[in-house]
Write a structure and sequence with these properties.
By secondary structure, the protein is mainly beta. Helices cover about 10% and strands about 30% of the residues.
């Protein structure tokens, strides 16, 4: 009976340890998530987002890929800093408003988040706090099928999955009693 209980727990563990937005069955591990492992709690940059397109790291520095995530957000949606930091860029790139924030206490080189297309509400060099409104989403672009915020994350020249910054409640495995094995 005890072996059956532990086997059920193992099955449960394999089914629940996945990343939000990851493919079903994807393991929860820093390597799989592209986790940069900063120590602070993070927040979404827009309220109640839907991920329209996930992070697809390129196989080589200049190869095709998606170097961030697209979050559904209508034009005019406030964009918030996901963590405290300093604005390293606020301006236009390729005709779109872009904001880049270097995050505090995230190692060397520090992590840097980017948001586009937005109208920046802060200037280069400004100190920002987690949750502070730093701009607003501008109209739809050809990048997304509908209005969205492209949220990126880098450490130096390495692109990382920005979803790895989100505060996730750690999984707790409890024994599963009297559940038949599949």
């Amino acid at each position: 009976m005890r072996a059956k209980r532990w086997a059920s727990t193992a099955v449960l563990a394999l089914t629940v340890l996945t990343l939000p937005g990851a493919a079903p069955g994807a393991p929860l591990s820093p390597a799989a998530a592209g986790t940069p492992a900063p120590a602070a709690v993070r927040n979404w940059p827009v309220p109640r987002p839907t991920v329209l397109r996930g992070w697809e790291p390129p196989p080589a520095p200049y190869a095709r890929g998606h170097r961030g995530v697209d979050l559904a957000a209508p034009s005019g949606t406030p964009v918030r800093a996901v963590a405290p930091g300093r604005v390293s860029f606020a301006g236009r790139v390729a005709g779109r408003g872009v904001l880049s924030i270097e995050l505090k206490n995230t190692g060397t080189p520090p992590l840097r988040t980017t948001y586009e297309p937005i109208t920046p509400g802060v200037k280069k060099g400004a100190e920002v706090t987690a949750g502070q409104v730093v701009g607003t989403v501008t109209g739809p672009t050809p990048h997304c099928p509908r209005a969205c915020l492209h949220w990126g994350l880098r450490r130096g020249d390495t692109y990382l999955n920005p979803l790895s910054l989100l505060n996730r409640v750690p999984s707790r495995l409890l024994p599963v009693l009297d559940v038949p094995l599949p």
